[in-house]
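pasting for the record
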Amino acid sequence: MLVLNSIIRFDDLQTEKRLEFSFCVNIEIEKSRKTLTNTCKITLPRKIKGLDNVDINKVFLKPGLKVEVFLGYDGELKKEFTGYVSNVSFKIPVEVTCQDEMFNLKQNSISKSWQNVTLKELIKFIYKGASKVADLSLGGFVIKQQSTAQVLEALKKYGLQSYFDNDGVLVCDFAGSLNEKPIEVIYDFNKNVIDNDLDYNRKEDIRIKVKGISKTATGKKIEFVTGDQDGDERTLNYFNLDNEALQRIVNKELTKLKQDGLKNTFTTFGHPYAEPGNVAIIRDIEYPERNGSYLIETVNTSHGVNGFRRVITPERKLV
């Protein structure tokens, strides 16, 4: 029988003090390419060996501490989360809520405007760390007293997804388009999949109409509509894009929305490790129509007294 292991480290970067635990009641990690911020909630036990008479909530745990979480079986641990404490509860047991590097990108304020800027130029201006960025012209762009995180959130209207990968690199792209050699994770529904509520979607059955609207600085409006005229309509609004750039963005959004794929989720054990942007290789003897390669959109991981599980949300089918 496999034995669960964990290490949770809290570091005060100012005082260089560290608090480390090898046991917790529960850890919940949520990672997704659809949400800007990856999160981790750590539930600590009522009593901690060596700290029975210390209120760790008051003397150490506080917002801003650096957090590292390592999880695994039988002493083989992998770093699953790096970030910062965003909130500490005052109830028992103690609950510590954490955010990834996006926590720091919510603390600044920027103002800048461009008549024409590329996505790479914009990201380089608002973020100084390592990044992987799609090749895209944004046209005119205005930032007015916004944080870096708020700017990244605004980029969603271009169909872009912004998130930090497990190596701490900021990714800003169209649904994994920059991941040329993605890590593949094999899921055999007769071996390492515990449960699922999956349904199969064919792209020809998905009815979507996408309308793109671009307004120039002079007030002129350009529109481009594509997709199914009787489909659910999605409207995207932009500023100062020319007709060619507008069509390119709208067509990419339609391609992303109309894909063969699986809807809902499946649940696995803690191993194998997976994160958003990896490719799930699904094998199912009973339902062979599910077989194929799927881009992973979301991974929700839980670890604690109830076991070690991952809930995987696949997105578009690749092969």
